[in-house]
Design a protein that fits this description.
By secondary structure, the chain is mainly β. The protein has 3 domains: 33 residues, no CATH class; 112 residues, Immunoglobulin-like (Sandwich); 150 residues, no CATH class.
Length: 322
């Protein structure tokens, strides 16, 4: 405990008025033994928030066995006067064997839209870790030696890989069935909610601009649909949709590369892509067909599990899409 001694050149006079005692200092010559000691910092630091997030970023609070992760925490020292935070550690031994006091470093770290003041180095979860909720603790110590441990933090372990569940299209009101047009939609449904950041860096799932490409598969059909970023320079990891054994176009067509943009939005496990302005000439399918969606393994769920690349055919009867 830190103590400060101050010498005063004054006289302490006790005055009682209306039943209340008042201490008054009056000017006086120096007396060598006149001194008092300030109260030291006896209040431990406060940890107001903490989260575990995979090192790849994106959705927080989820990891999978064998994955790497960071521990984040917001810690302040509230002593009066505050001596300052000295150390912050995390006991994550339930997730990573032996890590009873993983050190966190001061800084400014933003994840999931929240900024934290401390973060650990990259840690690795046990290779065999059952799915479920795991608790961990944060211990914060100040320079005066006061320490406080909070045990209210948790992370979810999910080891199940997502997969394609269904693929569908809708035709805008008044549109031509079998012809891809502005306002039509392509709907991709996974078996679980995906991490939007794994599909497009910084994406939260809110409506964002993209470019849709309808690619000519030749005279026998098998045209495909792929999704690109808004600059039309990089394909997004949403895989490829095969339109089936019928022809929708005889030349490559884009939607949203100019004029009204195509958009995508995520709701739960479903991503809906609305077609924007068409560039090129698309045709109209003459025959019914069945779409087949092959997802990309680069898309992950919140825990970082890579999506299965097993193809999924659209549910329902064979039909003309869009």
């Amino acid at each position: 405990m830190r103590r400060t001694t101050v010498t005063f050149v004054s006289l302490l006079v006790l005055v009682v008025s209306a039943g209340v005692a008042y201490a008054i200092f009056t000017k006086q010559a120096t007396v060598g033994s006149n001194s008092f000691s300030t109260a030291a910092d006896w209040v431990a630091p406060t940890t107001s928030a903490s989260v575990i997030a995979k090192t790849a970023g994106g959705t927080v609070g989820y990891i999978h066995q064998g994955s790497t992760y960071y521990v984040y925490a917001s810690v302040t020292d509230t002593g009066n006067p505050a001596s300052g935070v000295s150390t912050v550690t995390a006991n994550v031994s339930s997730i990573t064997t032996g890590q009873t006091a993983a050190s966190l470093t001061a800084g400014s770290y933003t994840i999931g839209g929240v900024t934290y003041s401390y973060r650990s180095a990259s840690l690795t979860a046990n290779a065999a870790l059952s799915a479920g909720s795991y608790t961990y603790s944060i211990t914060a110590t100040d320079a005066a030696g006061n320490a406080a441990t909070t045990n209210t933090w948790s992370v979810t372990v999910d080891n199940t890989a997502p997969a394609a569940s269904d693929v569908q299209t809708t035709n805008k009101a008044g549109g031509t069935n079998g012809k891809a047009e502005q306002g039509d939609t392509l709907i991709l449904t996974y078996t679980e909610t995906m991490d939007p950041n794994s599909i497009l860096a910084g994406w939260t799932g809110a409506s964002t601009n993209v470019v849709v490409r309808l690619n000519d598969g030749g005279v026998i059909g098998n045209d495909t649909v792929t999704i690109y970023n808004s600059a039309n320079t990089s394909q997004l990891p949403l895989g490829t949709v095969d339109m089936g054994s019928t022809t929708y176009t005889s030349a490559n067509v884009t939607f949203g590369a100019s004029g009204t943009a195509s958009t995508m939005v995520m709701s739960g496990a479903t991503i809906t892509i609305a077609l924007g302005h068409v560039t090129g000439t698309d045709g109209t399918a003459l025959l019914a067909g069945t779409m087949q969606w092959t997802p990309s393994a680069s898309a992950t769920d919140p825990a970082g599990n890579a999506c299965s690349t097993a193809a999924k055919s659209e549910s329902g009867a064979s039909d003309k899409d869009f």
